[in-house]
Amino acid sequence: MKPTFYITTPIYYVNDVPHIGHAYTTVAADLLARYKRLKGFDLFFLTGSDEHGQKVEKSAQAAGETPLVLADRVVKRFQALWEKLGISHTDFIRTTQERHKQGVSKIFKQLMDKGDIYLGEYEDWYCTPCETFWTETQVTDGKCPDCNRQVERLKEESYFFKMSAYGEKLLAHIEENPEFIQPRSKRNEIIAFIKDGLRDLSVSRTSFSWGIPVPGNEKHIIYVWFDALTNYITALGYPQEDGNFGKYWPADVHLIGKDILRFHAVYWPTFLMAAGLPLPKKIFAHGWWTVEGQKMSKSLQNVVEPNMLIDRYGVDAVRYFLMREVPFGLDGDFSHASLVNRINSDLANDLGNLLSRSTAMLMKYFNGVLPPAGTFADLDNQLKQKTEDMIKAVDQQMEELAFNKALQSIWEVVSSGNKYIDETTPWALAKEPAGKERLATVMYCLMETQRIIHSILAPFMPETSRKALAVLGISELPTIADLAWGKLTAGTTISKAEALFPRIEKTD
Predict the structure, then answer these.
(1) Over the stretch 123-152, which tens digit does the pLDDT of each residue have?
(2) Fold for domain 336-483?
(3) Any idea of the CA torsion for 57, 98, 231, 306, to the nearest 10 degrees?
(4) What pTM does this model have?
């Protein structure tokens, strides 16, 4: 039986337009999902949309439409972008779907029946854009500590979740499971937050109606974060505990942006503990993207729109740049100049050039038919060894979600392939009859190295890999077994490669 793996992105809020940050998380999840499939895992990959709450209700009213019409319109934009980016998700959950509402109502009622959710009265400062309550000490000059926008004083009847009862248990879990929250800096942040003392959490609102009603008291709407976080289990069929829920839960990794870490690393685990359900194995919070040194904002008109990037540079170039430019977990800065440099240097000069140079020589010297390799010389063994070492390194780096390191490891072999051509001088070997066998070995080593490079690159740049492998006479999607050296058979017809990535002329 295949091992299972369950990976999620956050569900994206429909009061927003898809931007580079959404694309970043989703591409990261996609390449991890594709890599796990390459390794033979039975994989479930979830993304979706968060559609309830006061922000959506207010925006819909301002636009003169119903909240669901607004949500339907925005959801289509996310789904179209995921298709354009080649995202291979298993399911797309919407919080307005009946399957989700039923699961949220079930877990909420379960916690009410248990006494972990109780009715009380709430008075505090509320930030509508962040959907978050703040205490007097957390608010400065009437502004939200997260987004720096105006908060309002709210006093209303509310249901509360006994989060305070789970602080010690959550702390023990974090300390016993060092991999649970990553990177380490974020783990330390959460430990400090819990040690400061968890308060009971307000989990219902009465001041708007767009959401899931509290079971048995419909004037209350379930707090948008209780609703949204539950998507990770409702998409698997919860409360039905067999089927996909029994098969895939707990999640192997929740990939999130660092701005929603507390909801995932404190609220969500305590909800699950109260419901008697297993906790996810890993929560990984990545950094934010700035744009040419400035925070992305509508007012600065510097929000990077992924559709425009794809149309201008190509989907695989965008996927490569997002994963290569910064260590996953740290903040990154986007600029068109950096993207163009990556395309010209890494993709056109290194990767593309290696394939076009080597296939052109194979056409010229062997009419495009791969010859059998002869005896390996030191240079051949070194290239083979580097390739095999890279496969092991990438596997370890993917486990650590160190995506940019995995790409660096692959590019070391790409560079070695280009250097190998210069050191073995195929053009000189071709001039001597005695050099024919040696030339055949060089050609075999070059093609086999690239078969492995493009097989392991398939999760990162699926379309590029498909094209490159087709040039090498391979039409099947690779598996982990295909990464072993020597799978490319002599006699295979190989065609001359077109430029995988044409150079982009820089404009001032």
Answers:
(1) 878 888 887 878 777 888 889 988 888 998
(2) Isoleucyl-tRNA Synthetase; Domain 1 (1.10.730)
(3) -60
(4) 0.92
